[in-house]
Amino acid sequence: MTMILRIGRYVLIDVLRNRWILAYLGFFLLATDLLLRLAGSGPRALVSLLNLVLLLVPLVTIVFGTIYWHGAREFNTLLLTQPVDRGRLFHGLFAGLVLPLSMAFVGGVTVPLLLHRAIGPEAVPLLVLMLVAGVALTAVFAAIAVLIGGLVEDRLRGLAAALGVWILLTVAYDAVVLWIAVAWRDAALEGPLLALTFLNPVDLARVLLVSRLDVAALLGYTGAVFTRAFGGATGVTLAVAGLAMWALVPGLLALRAFRRRDF
Asked: What is the pTM of this model?
């Protein structure tokens, strides 16, 4: 555990110095501040921020994570010449990657709300769900990024794969689901569409965020089916559990690839 904390602390400090992280923090600070000024209240600003969170958090995390993982290859090789367990090194590197990205997101959303004193009783539940969804998406797409970094040796190919995964899960997935729904519109599709919701972490995060709102238009096709089947606390619990699995499975596969890689 001490070794994991040492490696994680080094990577955390290194990543926090990165201009990408500062730009990421600055973007959410400015976007939240601007939306608060335009919307006039915390809940309205958070609703306006919803789509930015669902698109930008996965994009920045998977692109930054893939680039950083490839760039850290020499550092990893150097550490592995020492008596360091590969599993502990992986956990330290992964924690050092996820923590600063999560801190930048949480700080970028929360600080403007505090400065504007916009955190009232109505805003707190939505803010908590937004922070949980953002941090969960960070962990999920960081796990996918390190998996890509472990499987694809070439940096440019890895970056292309990362962008392909992001486009598939955030842009193309809903279009494919809509095509399936139209093509088999006479069939009973509720069960398959529920399964499709669990196959996309962005859809699960959307369900989690919109569960406190009466805005069906923001749910998407699979999200609307999901909320009809699992309302309230059950839906929130299932969405969080689904996001946890999405972080765990790619993370374990990435650990397996890291153990097998010949550095």
From this structure: 0.87
Q: Write out pLDDT tens, residues 37-48.
A: 988 777 888 888
In this structure, are residues 179 and 170 in contact, taking their beta carbons and an 8 Å threshold?
A: no
Q: What is the DSSP string of 239-258?
A: HHHHHHHHHHHHHHHHHHHH
Q: How far apart are CA 224 and CA 220, in angstroms?
A: 6
| Three-state DSSP class for residue 113 | helix
For the chain, how far is it from start to end, CA to CA, in angstroms? 23
Q: How far apart are CA 240 and CA 179, in angstroms?
A: 27
Residue where the block lists tokens 């360091």: 84
Question: Beta-carbon neighbour count of residue 199 at 10 Å?
Answer: 14
Specify the residue for token string 């990024």: 145
Among the listed residues 179, 144, 181, 178, the one whose alpha carbon sits nearest the alpha carbon of residue 163: 144
Q: 78: buried, middle or exposed (CB in 10 Å: 19+, 13-18, 0-12)? A: exposed
d(CA 247, CA 212): 24
